[in-house]
Design brief:
By secondary structure, this protein is of the alpha+beta class. The chain has five helices and seven strands.
Amino acid sequence: MATDSEHQSRQMMPTNIRVMRPDDLPAVYDIETRAYEFPWSRGIFRECFRAGYPAWVIVEAGQVVGYGILTVAANEAHILNLCIDPDYQYRGLGRCLLDALLFAAEQLGAERVFLEVRKSNRRALRIYLAAGFKPIGIRKRYYRSHDSREDAIVLSMENVSKN
């Protein structure tokens, strides 16, 4: 259960988080390719944008330093991608952006939020668990890896507005 201060942090979008615009896509793709060994393609980002998926960027000193993309349907949201520029990690920006995505999901009518995280991504897993997500399953061989495929841990947060 979130504390009052954690819940208050989700009451509104921070001023340094805004809706993603088409001209943000080059910066977003640059962050993606520097943060992940197996990044999304430019085409995936363009398709998410064209499909109208809710997406936000976090900005520091006028520069996009992170982004988050989700889908919402049938009272459920799915965080598709959340990434902070490697040069800006360890500053709490990931948690700030996660809280903004959860606020947006709630505002869009989601009662439950899902996401997948690489089994090896312990840092992200800690952030999600601290935010109130619970592991609900494993997607075998979900992510590309150097050894062929890596499992994903599926996480869920129920009753988003109460967390």
